[in-house]
Structures are given as C-alpha cells and as structure tokens.
Design a protein that fits this description.
This protein is of the alpha+beta class. It folds into three domains: 1-100, OB fold (Dihydrolipoamide Acetyltransferase, E2P), CATH 2.40.50.100; 103-188, no CATH class; 223-438, Chloramphenicol Acetyltransferase (2-Layer Sandwich), CATH 3.30.559.10. It has helices spanning 91-100, 135-144, 162-173, 178-186, 194-199, 218-233, 246-263, 269-283, 327-343, 348-351, 416-431, 434-438, and strands at 2-6, 16-22, 29-30, 35-40, 45-49, 54-59, 66-68, 72-77, 236-244, 290-292, 295-297, 304-306, 308-310, 313-315, 318-319, 356-360, 379-383, 387-393, 396-410. The strands form five sheets. Strands 9, 12, 15, 16, 17, 18 and 19 form a seven-stranded mixed β-sheet that branches. β10 and β11 form a beta hairpin. α8 (269-283) packs across α9.
C-alpha cells in the first residue's frame, strides 16, 4: 500500500516552495514523522515529514523544482522492506545523486575527517556511505565552502553534524603536512581520474578572468522583491541623530554579572533600544502604525521585527508584545532568534507580523546607513557602531562613546515633526535610562 507525501501548509500567504534537498533516497526505510525532504520557502526552510512508516519508493520531483502546497512529491510503501528495489525515480534521483556524489580529482584537497585531515580511502566514499544533510548542516557546508563527501560524520549513523563541518573547515585552513601530500601527488591513479577532472573546472591560472552564476534563493528573491516594493510604494525619508552611549555602557558594566547570574543571559544593547522604542511609541503612535488601503491602523502593542543575519540573507523574526517584556525576556528572545536563524530552524509564524523594525548594522561595523522599511510597517530604526568622538559637554571638549541613529519612515503616514520627535525620545531614553523605569 502506497501513501502519498504531500507538501504541508507553509504558512499564511505562502502557496509554494522550492524542494531544496532530498533527505532520503528511494529504497530507504523511513519512520513516521521522519523528515524526508527539505523545502525552501520565501521566509524559512521547512522539513517535510513522512506521514507513515515504510520505505520511500518514488521521488516525483527533483531538487530545485517549485512545488505548490498540497502537491504530491513522493510515495511511501508501508509494506515494503528497506533495501528493496525501488522504481526508477527519474530526474529527481539524478539531481540528488549529482548533488552528493563528487569523485576525487588529482588536484583536490585531501579528505577531511571530523578530527583531522588525513586522507580517506576511496572505499569510504562509496554512495552507500554518503549521508544526507540536514538543512542546518547544508547551510554550514555552503557557508564554509567544504566538500561534505570528504568529511567523516560523528552523528547518529555516521551523519554529518554542524560541528563536523566547522571542524573540517578549520582543518582545511591549516596547511597539510608535506609527508601526507607527497603520496597524493605521485599516485599512479591520476590517469584513471582524468574524466573526473574534465567534469570539474580546473583552478584558475594566473591572470585568468572567471565568472560564476548562482541562482538566487527564494529568500533572496523575496528580499529583493519586498525592498523594491517598499521603494516604489512608500514615500521614504530618513532622519538622523546621534546618541551618547555612556549611561548604557556604564549600566551594563555595573550590572552585567548580576544580570547574567540571575537571568542566565548577558545584558546587551538591544534590550535598552527596544524599551526606548516602546516608550517613544506612546508619544508618537504613528511610527508604530501601518497603512492598509486608505486606512491607517494604529497598534496598542509593539511587535518588534529584529533584523538578524542568516547564511542565506537577512531575516526578521518578531519579538511580540515587546512593550510588556522585561529586559531579560527581550535579551533571551533575541538571542534565541539569532541562534536559530543561523541554524535555519526559525518557523514561518515567527517571521510574520511585526509593527516596527530595529536593524543593528553596528555589529558589522556600519557607521551610518539609511535602512528601508519592511512593508506594511511605517518605520525602521537603524543602529550603528559605537565609536569615541569629540563632543562639547558643559563647555569642554570631551571624548564620548557615540552612536548614529537613523529612522527611515513612510512620509505618507508620518510627518517630519513626528519622526524627529520619536528619534529624540529614543535618544533621551538611551542617554538617561532612568526614564525607562519611570515611564518618562
């Protein structure tokens, strides 16, 4: 008895995704609810679980194909036994095989184990030994540019883990001993491997100009579409101010150990800025509003979209009801989002909504920028790096840790006076954090 595997619901307004990777091959046994494929949507990666226990008999689509919600992508035979001959999977299996099989060429780097980079015998790279990659591991492979077929997995059943990939990347950076590399250069099997070399581009010679074409991921396409939509639709304008970070830095220095001991999380800058934005929104509610048709929707809550860098692009998970959260709750939520963004495990629901966005380009060294709003939101606050600059204080020129702030806003909803007032309120709260306690 065969059971169809359908594309699950991917979230509100998401009707299709791209089959990024098959996690199981035809003929392999699968357990109920075990992931058999990974889908890439406009926002996050989603694993497709098997509805029943059995054997994967057919893959009906190939990696890279677009699939609609509810479409049948595979079939599971509940009565078949593992290893049984599976029907010809067609182009889907060929695509999967091309993505995982990589015959060694004469000029390739020695195989990397999980704990060293000693050569691995060819027998260890048979197709039966090549394990499928989870979305998190696949992202690490792309990020660190390593060959997954040349890494010894330490996970369950020999599967690769993210730590295996990182260790292999670190080992690859270190020059291999000459004693290990010498036999590779003299190996008599080089002529037999010539066909493999013909399939892979040879290293660029001196002065050679090369190009590489890589298809945009669905996430990158969505980012591009939404940003251009914001530019074409909203009346974007940016106002700037600078803020003296002395008081916040002093508070962190004085209380960071007690804070971490009590709450189990470090006290960062984001907690202060989220609180300051919530306080300022009470005085200037239009900054926390959105435009729907010819109506302005005002929110009595603050759901902050926090821009987080992920391997495939910028994502903005939402800290909901941030105006009612404590410093510890804000810091824990943002830290969790940042970790799971790198692992690719954020859910669609965590990425939807949001009434205001905070983007911290300062962690990458940005001095000043003009961020673009995230529709249908009406404003975004850009934070930047902290650097000591000379300022005049009580008639004296002194050095202070200063940060530039930028508020980009939709001029259709927010007047210039309101935008400037909002940014001044944020500045005042950061320079005098006591205001956050007494709601002033």
């Amino acid at each position: 008895m065969s059971t169809d595997v359908e594309v699950p619901a991917l979230g509100e307004s998401i009707t299709e995704g791209t089959l990024a990777q098959w996690l199981k091959k035809p003929g392999e046994a699968v357990a109920a609810d075990e992931p058999i494929a990974s889908l890439e949507t406009d926002k996050v990666s989603v694993e497709v679980p098997s509805p029943v226990a059995g054997v994967l008999t057919e893959q009906l689509v190939g990696e890279g194909d677009n699939v609609a919600v509810g479409a049948v992508i595979a079939r599971i035979d509940e009565k078949a036994t593992a290893g049984a001959a599976a029907p010809s999977p067609g182009p889907a299996a060929e695509t999967a095989a091309a993505a995982t099989t990589n015959p060694a060429g004469a000029g390739e780097t020695p195989a990397l184990r999980g704990d060293d980079n000693a050569p691995v015998a060819e027998a260890e790279h048979d197709d039966d030994q090549i394990t499928t990659l989870s979305p998190a591991v696949r992202r690490a492979v792309l990020e660190y540019h390593v060959d997954p077929t040349r890494i010894r997995g330490t996970g369950k059943d020999g599967r690769l883990t993210k730590d295996d990939v990182i260790a292999a990347a670190e080992a690859q950076k270190s020059p291999a001993p000459a004693a290990v590399q010498a036999p590779q250069a003299k190996a008599p099997a080089v002529p037999a491997q010539a066909p493999a070399q013909a399939k892979s581009p040879s290293p660029a010679s001196a002065g050679e100009r090369r190009e590489e074409r890589v298809k945009m991921s669905r996430l990158r396409q969505t980012i591009a579409k939404r940003l251009k939509e914001a530019q074409n639709t909203a009346a974007l304008l940016t106002t700037f101010n600078d803020v003296d970070m002395s008081a916040v830095i002093d508070a962190r220095t004085r209380y960071k150990e007690l804070f971490e001991k009590k709450h189990g999380i470090r006290l960062g800058f984001m907690g202060f800025f989220v609180k300051a934005c919530a306080l300022a929104a009470k005085d200037v509610p239009s900054v926390n509003a959105s435009l729907e048709g010819d109506e302005i929707v005002y929110h009595d809550y603050l759901d902050v979209s926090v821009a987080v860098s992920a391997p495939k692009g910028l994502v903005v998970p939402v800290v909901r009801n941030a105006d009612r959260m404590s410093f510890a709750e804000i810091e824990k939520t943002i830290a969790d989002y940042g970790k799971r963004a790198k692992e690719g495990t954020l859910t669609v629901d965590e990425m939807q909504g949001g009434t205001f966005t905070i983007s911290n380009g300062g962690v990458f060294g940005s001095l000043l920028s003009t961020p673009i709003i995230n529709p249908p939101q009406s404003a975004v606050l850009g934070m930047h790096r902290i650097e000591e600059r000379p300022v005049v204080n009580d008639g004296q020129i002194v050095a202070r840790p200063m940060m530039y702030l930028a508020l980009s806003y939709d001029h259709r909803i927010i007047d210039g006076r309101e935008a400037v007032t909002y940014l001044v309120r944020v500045k005042e709260a950061i320079e005098d954090p006591t205001r956050l306690l007494i709601d002033l």
